Amino acid sequence: MKEYYFYSNNKTNGPVSYGQLVELADAKTPVWCEGMDDWKPIENIPELASDMGIKYVPEIRAESTINKTTINIPLNSSRTSSNVNINLEDENKLKHNSYLVLSILSIIFSIKPIGAIGLLFSILTMSCNKHKDYKHAKVYSVIALVSFIINLMIFLINNGI
Description:
single chain; 161 residues; alpha+beta; 4-stranded antiparallel sheet; 3-stranded antiparallel sheet; 7 strands
């Protein structure tokens, strides 16, 4: 016989039997039992929702550590569900270009301070990529690229091109 745990009144309760769970929990109550990967509200567990007269609500959740979404799809008239794994591109987990070479070229051929700013942000981008801080790496990468573009424009203007 399965033993269930449920979260209520800011604490974990259980183990309780199925009969006790039906009496103590509602649709939004998070529940866990052996064999489940994670806590879920009863409305997201087809077997429990159906037996308790609660409308089953398929769960859609993104798992940040493995970059995919699991969608529970109920099968026709059965009480089981099937997991469909869909890989999603998450742009916040992509490494960003540091534009290091462009920054060094900016220092050599044009205005030194602007090139130095580009170099600084190129190094910061590489550091953020190394530490998997992709959100900041993206910002620093854009700043490094913009400083190169500004330097290139000034270079072209000064040389009459």
